[in-house]
Structures are given as structure tokens and as C-alpha cells.
Amino acid sequence: MKLTTQLAIAYPILQGPMLGVTTPAMVAAVANAGGLGSLPVGGLSPEKTHELILATKSKTDKPFAVNLFAHETSVSTSQADIDTMLNLLEAIYEDYGIPFSRPALTEFNFYSYQDQIEVLLHEQIPIVSFTFGLLEPAVVDQLKQQGSTLIGTATCVREAILLEESGVDIVVAQGVEAGGHRGTFLTDGPLPQVGSLSLLPQIVDAVSLPVIAAGGLFDARTVKAAFVLGAEGVQLGSFFLASDESAASEAYKTAVLSASDTSTALTRAFSGRWARGITNRFMEQVEQATLTIPYYTYQNSLTAGLRAYAQQNNIPELISLWAGQSASNSRRGKASDLLRSLIEQLDFDQEPV
Ligand SMILES: Cc1cc2nc3c(=O)[nH]c(=O)nc-3n(C[C@H](O)[C@H](O)[C@H](O)COP(=O)(O)O)c2cc1C
After folding, report:
1. In angstroms, what is the span from residue 46 Cα to ligand 1's centroid?
2. How far is the CA of 124 from the centre of ligand 1 (A)?
3. 35: CA distance to ligand 1 center in Å?
């Protein structure tokens, strides 16, 4: 079955879910223009998840994907590592004259995808994508019984095979160029850092599922290259960063638009998970301090206040400027216009289906 038929969309182009950047308006704009919009809800409360799904549904009657985080939630971290990190954060707050208050561990709320599944089932979400892991078998069964199509994220061939074995319908092959967090979930070896040109054909050869390419795609040339390498669809994230519907602050958009091919790096500084963003002072300060960075759920919570403050106050040196290696090709304008212009450049003879 063609990917467009499987997902009930006109064009095999997905807007990559981007937590903190993607808004219901962006998802709906892409869906209404014939692509697949993806609503990121990773780590959000069930109430917020529901609110965002309803807000998206109020703007489109087309199908869209809801995107979950499938990471381990039970990993603990030592109080000593948290205290040392808080000392460093306090110094950074002071540098910028930002009021600091020391959070207690009990204030952190970690929501896992298990907390959100009831909402997705209730709202009959037709496409569920996820990253950072595998969904547990009972959840795969529940979603499939309801008729949801499942899309998992792989950053290496072994992860793609595990996703296929777990019963997903489609695999996203996330090359190392991609902006935002690595979807990596196999942690028994070095972090997979395979570029799309190498990753995509190797995953296509290793699994019998449709593969969606993600990482470094931004125009007709790069999208066509992904199709030549065996992709049945493409997922673009950074492409939409500077769009009107993006929640990125003006400082973030400016940093993206003035980036170059070498502006980004992989870092654990902001969240404790490897992610690609535009290098800035916060990344450098945390990395130079050579501390043990607490596990994702903790570090992400510890830096949440600072990241939100920096976005609101346009301080690019403290914002997690998630962006891919080709992010400077993002453009201002309506997400629907950006997508339409890409579709016009592509030779979709047979489309829409
Ligand atoms: C700001 C930002 C946030 C992201 N958040 C998520 C997310 O919540 N879930 C997810 O599966 N992928 C996330 N990604 C990855 C994108 O969905 C997409 O796969 C990636 O951006 C593709 O590479 P590109 O940036 O080179 O286009 C994020 C990417 C960016 C740039």
C-alpha cells in the first residue's frame, strides 16, 4: 500500500513533531495543505495532551499524528549530581540577573506515554508516532485494535529491526543531521551518529516496512534524494522552525536563519539526552564544567525554568536552540505556503492519490 493511502494524506511529506515549537496551528496548516501534521505531546500531562488535540481538531478535519516519548521513566539519579547541577545553574542565573529558586525533587512531575494513552484512545487518533524507545506490547495492541497506524523512530539499523518486531507499521530513519533530540533507545554501545545518506538505504534494506527519511531534508533535491534511497515519505522539522505558526521566539528564529552548516552540535547539556542544537553559551558552560549530567527526566526539569525564561525574554545564549544541520534553509512565512512551494518543486506525477 502506498504511504499516502496508508496515512490518508495527499503528499508523502510529514511535518516533524517539534515539542516546544510545533503548535496546533502548524499541525493543522500542514494537514490542510495535504501533508501529515504531527502534534508533539511527549512528557505532557494527560490534560494538556487533550487540550492540544482538541485545539488541533478545531482547526482541521484532516488526519494528523500525535507524537509520544517512549523513554524509560524509572531511571534514578543521585541527589549529589542534582545538587552539583543546581549550583552551576544558580551561577548561570546570577550571571544573567535572573531570580533563582532551588526546586525540590518532589516538585518534578514525570508523565510517561502510559499516562497519555487513554486520551489518544478516547480521541481516536489515527496515527501515533513516537521516539526514544519502543511502546510496550499491551499499548501496541490497544492502539492497533482501535485502528491507529504506528510510526516509530530509529537512529540505527538495529533499532529499526526492533521497531519492526514490536509491531509498528512505519519506521522513521532519523539521520544524525536532524535537529532536536536523537530518538536513540539502544544504549549498550556508542550513540549512533549515522548520516541520512548511510542510514536510510541500510534501514530500507533491513526491514520490510515503509521507511520515512528524517534529517537534513529541506528542498526538492534533498527530498528526491531520500526517495531515490528508498524512502516512501519524508519528515521535515527544521524546515518549519521559522514559520509563522512556530512557537520559537524571535531570538530563536533569528539564530536559525543566520546559522551555517557548522553552527549545530550534539549536546546533553539542556536535557540530559543527546540533541542537536545551535551551539550557544549555555551548552558550552555546562559541557566545560564536566559534571555528571543527570538523567533526562531530571535534567530536562532542572533546566525547564531557565529555558522558558530565555524564550520569553529572547536570550539566545540560554535557549535550547534545537535545529538541524540544514536549519538555515528554514524560511519565514505560513507553514502551508512553505509546504506548497516544496510540493510545487517536486514532481508528484501520480499525486495526490
Ligand atoms: C525543535 C525541535 C524539536 C523536536 N521535537 C521532537 C519531538 O518532540 N518528537 C520527535 O519525534 N522528534 C522531534 N524532533 C525531530 C523532528 O521531528 C524531525 O525528525 C527532525 O527535525 C528532522 O530533521 P531536520 O531538523 O533536519 O529536518 C524535533 C526537532 C526539532 C528541530
Report:
1. 21
2. 24
3. 16
Q: What is the 3-state secondary structure (H, E, C) of the chain?
A: CCHHHHHCCCCCEEECCCCCCCCHHHHHHHHHCCCECEEECCCCCHHHHHHHHHHHHCCCCCCCEEEEECCCCCCCCCHHHHHHHHHHHHHHHHHCCCCCCCCCHHHCCCCCHHHHHHHHHHCCCCEEEEECCCCCHHHHHHHHHCCCEEEEEECCHHHHHHHHHCCCCEEEEECCCCCEECCCCCCCCCCCCCCHHHHHHHHHHHCCCCEEEECCCCCHHHHHHHHHCCCCEEEECHHHCCCCCCCCCHHHHHHHHCCCCCCEEEECCCCCCCEEEECCHHHHHHHHCCCCCCCHHHHHHHHHHHHHHHHHCCCCCCCCCECCCCHHHCCCCCHHHHHHHHHHHCCCCCCCC
CATH of the domain spanning 1-73+110-245+334-353, picked from 3.30.450.20, 3.10.580.10, 3.20.20.70, 3.90.79.10: 3.20.20.70
Please report, for the chain, the start and end positions of each structural domain, with discontinuous segments joined by +: 1-73+110-245+334-353, 76-108+248-328
Ligand 1 within 6 A of CB of 18: yes
**pTM reported for the whole predicted model:** 0.97
What is the tens place of the pLDDT at every residue in 29-80? 999 999 999 999 999 999 999 999 999 999 999 999 999 999 988 788 889 9
